[in-house]
C-alpha cells in the first residue's frame, strides 16, 4: 500500500512539473470578442447573413483559403464579401489573383472598419498596414477627412491676417486624444448613413446603421487607377462619404466605410438588410455565388497553430490521456520487485540458447535433411536395416499405415530439401511426428 501511495505522489509531482513548465497558462478572464465569420452566432458574426441568403436560395461559399483559390470557383457573376482589417493580413501573392478575378466579371464588397472601428478590429485584429492592404485590394487611397472643429479652424485661418502680419504657431499633438484612441466606449456610438441619390444599389434604402466601440475617424477615397468613383452614401451627421463604387475591368468594387453593418447585431436594423439584398441582386449573375472571406478573419482550412492549440478538443484529449496514464500507473500494473544481480543459467535456458543459435546459423534445407535422416534411421532400426539415413519409401508404401496425402507431402518436402530449397520446418516436423506414430 505504501508503494502505491508513493507512486501516486510521484505521478502527481511529475504532472505538476510538466504543467508548470510546458502547458500554456490561462489568460485573465475577459469578454470574448466575436469575429465576422460565417459560423459565428455572436454579435459580430455573419451566421444570420449566411442563413438568410441560403433561405432565399442564394448559394453561399465560405472561403477558407487564400485568394489564389478564387481561380477554382465559378468564373464570373460572383460576389466576394471581405471584412477588413484582416486577422490574417493580405499577402502580396494574393493581390494579382484577386484583381484578375474581379476584372473577369466579379464583384468585390469590402466591408471595412474605417469609420466605425469595431471591437474585433482592435488588439489581436489590428493590422499595421491596413491602409496599404486596402489600396492593394481596391485601388483606393484613403485620406483622413478633417473633423468639423478643424474645418471651422481652417475657415478662421482663411479670414485671419496674412502670414507676414502674424506668426503661425505650429499645431502640437494632443496626448489626451491619442490616449483616448485605444479606450473603448462604455456604450457604442451609433452612426447613420443616408443615400446621396438614386442608384440600383440604393433601391428602397433610406438609411443604414453602424455601431462604433472605439474612437474613430472619417475618411475620403481617391484613386489613381479608376476614372470615376461613385460616392453612393454619406454620414448623416458629418456629410462625409461612407459607400463607394468603382469599376475594375469587367467587374466592380464596392467599399463600405462601416465594418459592422452586416453583422448579426445590425443586419436587421434600418435598411442594412435591404442594402445587402440590393448588392447581391445587382452583382450576382445566373449561377453565381456569394463568397464570404472567412480565411482572413481566422477561419481557415490550412494549418493554424494558434487555432490548433486553442481548440478545447485538444485540451480535453490531453486531460483524458493524463487520466488514463494515472489509471495505468496505479491500476492493474503489478509493481516489480528489486532485480537481482545474479542470474544462474539452468539447463532449459542453455538448450533454448543453443537452439536459437543453431536456428540462426543453420539453413532450413540443411535442417530438413537432418530431420529426414533421423526419421529414416529410426525406421531402419525398427526393421533391422543399416542405419545410414537412406530413404525407405518402398517399405513405407508397403506398410500402408501412413495416409497417401501425408506420404505425398513427405516426398515433396524431401525433394525440396535435397535440392537445397527452403521448407517450412514446423510443418515438416509435424508430418514426421505423425509418421513416427503411424509407422513405429
Q: Tell me the span between the first and last alpha carbons.
A: 59 Å
Number of alpha- plus pi-helical segments: 14
Tell me the domain tally.
Answer: 3
| Beta-strand content estimate | 5-15%
The radius of gyration is 42 Å
Coarse shape: elongated
Strand order of the largest sheet: 1-11-2-3-10-9-8-5-6
Kindly name the structural category.
Answer: alpha/beta
What CATH architecture of the largest domain would you give? 3-Layer(aba) Sandwich
CATH class of the largest domain: Alpha Beta
Along the chain, the helix and strand elements come as: HHEEHEHEHHEEEEEEHEHHHHHHH
Overall mean pLDDT stands at 82
General description of the model:
- It is built from 14 helices and 11 strands.
- The strands form 2 sheets. A 9-stranded mixed sheet has the order 1-11-2-3-10-9-8-5-6, sandwiched between helices.
- 40% of the residues lie in helices and 14% in strands.
- The two termini are 59 Å apart.
- Strand 9 (241-248) and strand 10 (251-256) form a beta hairpin.
- The chain has helices at residues 2-22, 47-55, 92-103, 130-138, 148-159, 175-180, 272-283, 305-309, 312-330, 347-361, 364-383, 393-399, 404-418, 425-439; strands at residues 60-63, 79-84, 107-112, 141-144, 189-195, 208-212, 219-222, 230-235, 241-248, 251-256, 290-293.
- The protein folds into 3 domains: 2-23 and 312-330; 47-145 and 179-302, Class I glutamine amidotransferase (GATase) domain (Rossmann fold); 347-439, no CATH class.
- Helix 1 packs antiparallel against helix 9 (312-330).
- It is α/β, with parallel strands linked by helices.
Amino acid at each position: 500500500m505504501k508503494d502505491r501511495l508513493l507512486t501516486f505522489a510521484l505521478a502527481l509531482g511529475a504532472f505538476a512539473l510538466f504543467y508548470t513548465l510546458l502547458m500554456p497558462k490561462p489568460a485573465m478572464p475577459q469578454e470574448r470578442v466575436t469575429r465576422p465569420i460565417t459560423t459565428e452566432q455572436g454579435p459580430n458574426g455573419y451566421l444570420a447573413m449566411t442563413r438568410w441568403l441560403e433561405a432565399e436560395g442564394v448559394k453561399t461559399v465560405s472561403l477558407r483559403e487564400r485568394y489564389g483559390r478564387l481561380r477554382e470557383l465559378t468564373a464570373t457573376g460572383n460576389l466576394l464579401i471581405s471584412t477588413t482589417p484582416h486577422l490574417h493580413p493580405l499577402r502580396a501573392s494574393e493581390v494579382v489573383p484577386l484583381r484578375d478575378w474581379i476584372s473577369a466579371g466579379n464583384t468585390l464588397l469590402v466591408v471595412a472598419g474605417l469609420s466605425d472601428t469595431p471591437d474585433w478590429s482592435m488588439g489581436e485584429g489590428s493590422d499595421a498596414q491596413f491602409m496599404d492592404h486596402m489600396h492593394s485590394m481596391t485601388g483606393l487611397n484613403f485620406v483622413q477627412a478633417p473633423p468639423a472643429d478643424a474645418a471651422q479652424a481652417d475657415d478662421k485661418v482663411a479670414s485671419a491676417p496674412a502670414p507676414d502680419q502674424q506668426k503661425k504657431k505650429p499645431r502640437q499633438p494632443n496626448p489626451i486624444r491619442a490616449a483616448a484612441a485605444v479606450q473603448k466606449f462604455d456604450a457604442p456610438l451609433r452612426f447613420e448613413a443616408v443615400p446621396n441619390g438614386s442608384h440600383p444599389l440604393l433601391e428602397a434604402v433610406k438609411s443604414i446603421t453602424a455601431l462604433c466601440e472605439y474612437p474613430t475617424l472619417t475618411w475620403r477615397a481617391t484613386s489613381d487607377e479608376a476614372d470615376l468613383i461613385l460616392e453612393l452614401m454619406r454620414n448623416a451627421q458629418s456629410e462625409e462619404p461612407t459607400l463607394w463604387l468603382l469599376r475594375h475591368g469587367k467587374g466592380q468594387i464596392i467599399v463600405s466605410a462601416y465594418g459592422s453593418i452586416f453583422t448579426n447585431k445590425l443586419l436587421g436594423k434600418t435598411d442594412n438588410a435591404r442594402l445587402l439584398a440590393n448588392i447581391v441582386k445587382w452583382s450576382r449573375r445566373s449561377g453565381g455565388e456569394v463568397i464570404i472571406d472567412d480565411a482572413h478573419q481566422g477561419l481557415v482550412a490550412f494549418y493554424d497553430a494558434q487555432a490548433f492549440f486553442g481548440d478545447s478538443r485538444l485540451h480535453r484529449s490531453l486531460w483524458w490521456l493524463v487520466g488514463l496514464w494515472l489509471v495505468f500507473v496505479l491500476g492493474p500494473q503489478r509493481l516489480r520487485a528489486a532485480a537481482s544481480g545474479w542470474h544462474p543459467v539452468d539447463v532449459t535456458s542453455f538448450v533454448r540458447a543453443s537452439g536459437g543459435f543453431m536456428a540462426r546459423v543453420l539453413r532450413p534445407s540443411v535442417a530438413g535433411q537432418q530431420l529426414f535422416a533421423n526419421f529414416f534411421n529410426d525406421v531402419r532400426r525398427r526393421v533391422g536395416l543399416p542405419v545410414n539415413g537412406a530413404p525407405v519409401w518402398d517399405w513405407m508404401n508397403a506398410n500402408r499405415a501412413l495416409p497417401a496425402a501425408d506420404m505425398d507431402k513427405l516426398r515433396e518436402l524431401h525433394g525440396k530439401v535435397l535440392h537445397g530449397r527452403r521448407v517450412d520446418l514446423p510443418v515438416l516436423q509435424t508430418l514426421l511426428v505423425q509418421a513416427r506414430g503411424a509407422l513405429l
